[in-house]
Amino acid sequence: MRALATLAVAIVAASALAVPATPAVAxxxxxxxxxxxxxxASESEKLRAARTLGVVPTDAMLxxxxxxxxxxxxxxxxxxxxxxxxxxxxxxxxxxxxEWIKSGIISANERDQAQQMRDAEAARVAREAKExxxxxxxxxxxxxxxxxxxxxxxxxxxxxxxGPRVRAAILAALAGTSAERKELIANGLRTAxxxxxxxxxxxxxxxxxxxxxxxxxxxARGRAVTVVRVVPTPDIVSLPDDDVLRVIADGARPGSEVxxxxxxxxxxxVRADWKRFVDSGVYEANWRDVAAVLAQKAEADRALVDDIRxxxxxxxxxxRLARAAERAxxxxxxDVRAFLDQGQYDALTQSFSRxxxxxxxxxxxxxxxxxxxVVQPGAAEPAPGEGLDATxxxxxxxxxxxxxxxxxxTKPNHYLARYYDGKKTQVAVQxxxxxxxxxxxxxxxxxxxxxxxxxxxxxxxxFLTRQADGRAGVGIEFYWWVxxxxxxxxxxxxxWLNKYLPDYDPYTDLLVSPLGPEQVDGPVRYRDFQRxxxxxxxxxxxxxxxxxxxxxxxAGRGTACASPELLATYLRLGGHPALGVPVTDEACTxxxxxxxxxxxxxxxxxxxxxxxxHAVLGAIRxxxxxxxxxxxxxxxxxxxxxxIPGGRRGTFERGRIDYDTATGVATVYPAS
Length: 672
Prior knowledge:
Trefoil (Acidic Fibroblast Growth Factor, subunit A), five-stranded antiparallel sheet, 25 strands, disordered N terminus
């Protein structure tokens, strides 16, 4: 209750300023909100959007925020689809408004020209639901109030009504879900208002029961006529029920369920049928009208999502968008709507990596850096948000929707573009200027798609490529893997990708994949990996530390020179804090009977079936190695090193080595 009271105070204060609340913008999937700058429409894109409608925008219009600019064009638009799509965008997120300016207005205008209606009916239903709700509450239904999103509409209405049931319902919905707000506008406000009206009637101690019954009937008639957006004046609410039915029939859309139901009720000579229609029948009929429109809209939305999915698959450069569309289609109406409202924009980010074609190296990504556009791995010890420089927003091509443009995720309206420096064609991230020349240079077409090899990106006659110096440039045909955004390309990741390169393909499951995120302990980093044949089980753990290379420790017996597990023994003895990180890969012993690994702390772990897996450390290890290690007369270690009075002892198959701490001497004691 305290939270609702606080919300009420905030709403009243803001309502006094007549400023609607601004909904939060969802963070695109996989991107760090603090690092990525949300896209906005550029001045050139606003000019192009305005020109679509034959509007010459003023300087003041061009300075408007994207959401305000949408409304500015909506006021001047005449096409049903343009106006409807603008209303749906305005009722959505800031990002939806931006995308409407960038491309939505153009496609909506094309539908108007072709007389193809997709959004008009859905926008009308949403608008009329708010209009009916406003009228029933006695709120002036200004056009711009009716196209606000549900939260902003309720926020504004809250400041203009006084009924306690209505205000409580609005507070609860504002603190609730999107579906609850939508239901409140469609039905809940009318019900709450009916409760407020009845409370006022019941509280009138001066009125007779007959007067209370008359007022209740008039209130019911008044609510009923608002379904067809008729203001319930005293002249109307005092009419007999059959005349009220005529008002509703006249105000209903021709051929609608409301009109049909009103006419059917009028044909009855039973007064109870008229009253039943006023009390409930009109709302049931209206819902059938709304349901029919929503069903048509849902069908059109699914077709649109399927088309987006198909185009993403065919395009070859938006695998995340294709997968997001597939997930939406596998869900229900709400999933499809959420995808169109926000999900399709969240899924536009991708990264581009070198692949194995022509000896290239995996884990090197197309990156926007302060020194230019390069193709290289990330930092060995990445900072938070690492990989944003290798993340691009893949949008429709500025020079044509059949191709693509790569927009920076940190600098809106900056694109990867070709330019001529006086000697040769280069590539850089540059701001869009709205010229045909820039749009052409910032557009890349996918020429070839090879599963397991990736795609080629061609700009004009040149292909986007990696030059010998590691910088991005143009040249001959070059293949890129299209991968997930915010790529992790630490030393461990690059080692994994290249070690399992024959199986690495971003379009399929990997033979070996990470089991969890990379772990950091000061200068040491490590990560567990799993095999596709045994998901959820650690196959090996790779270690890296500053100044060193990546080395794995296998879980289980391994494949080459199978023997007891090394990783478990290493962890049992304290892991990297005790032994240091591995400085060699696992290797077979000289007799091929077992395995061993050396560690930065000066120790080793040897593993063989007849003796188990044990560590040999420090001076004892040095003495044993000087004798020939496992080839010596001592053979393999049979136990971990232990403390003895005055030193340490290592036990082997055919003897032991004792280390004297005072003298620093390691002495061999062969078995008798």
